[in-house]
Amino acid sequence: MEDEQIIDLYFQRSEEAIRQTEAAHGHKLYTLAYRILRNREDAEESVSDTYLKAWESIPPTRPTYFYAYLAKICRFLCFGRLDWKNAAKRKAELVELTTEMELCIPDLSRERQLEAQELGRLLNEFLGTLNEESRNIFMRRYWFADSVAEIAQRYRIGESKVKTRLFRARNQLRSFLEKEGYAL
Q1: Alpha carbons 94 and 173: distance in angstroms, whole number
Q2: Number of Cβ atoms within 10 Å of the Cβ of 95
Q3: Model confidence over 169-183: pLDDT tens digits?
Q4: Confidence (pLDDT) at 93
Q5: Do you find a cis peptide bond into 106, omega within 30 degrees of 0?
Q6: Under 8 Å between Cβ of 96 and 143
Q7: CA-based diameter of the chain, in Å?
Q8: CA–CA dist 184, 96 (Å, integer)
Q9: How far apart are the first and last CA of the chain?
Q10: Quick one: CA dihedral 102, 104, 105, 110, positive or negative?
């Protein structure tokens, strides 16, 4: 079933919408959640919560890109769960992706001058400056949480080339944000 038809089911308040969402995007959402949480049960629960949040928000929202909408909800829930689990255990575990990105994006808790929406706008603007392959590699790593090996396999390039592209993109992002007036 096409995404538009699934969204129409949400607007009709048909429970079939959840089943069709799971059939169309469940595996991708689970993979995304598992890459973030590294726990099968937590990933399954986050995906289930994603369906609930989609049910609660559609309508009135009518997403243009349905999977991207679901992935955004899923990522938010996963990182919330990760924060909760780490706080509950009173340990300061760093996520590898966060470590890589902290060198070029300011910490919002320390840098109150940069609002989240402005950062999102700047990230979109920056991504528009990258060529298509570099942008895809960047998004696969930092949005979909793919490993370097998975990205290399997907684009049929070497892992060292992926690492180099990511390193250069992070440096370009750092320079771009500094040029926009954000001290890092």
Answers
A1: 21
A2: 14
A3: 999 999 998 888 776
A4: 45
A5: no
A6: no
A7: 49
A8: 19
A9: 46
A10: positive
CA distance 153 to 158: 8
Of 81, 95, 39, 47, whose CA–CA distance to 67 is shortest?
47
Write out 9-77 in H/E/C secondary structure: HHHCCCCHHHHHHHHHHHHHHHHHHHHHHCCHHHHHHHHHHHHHHHHHHCCCCCCCCHHHHHHHHHHHH
What gap in Å lies between CA 124 and CA 129, rounded to an integer?
Answer: 9
pLDDT in tens, 93-106: 445 565 666 666 55
- The contacts of residue 79 (CB under 8 Å, 6+ apart) are 36
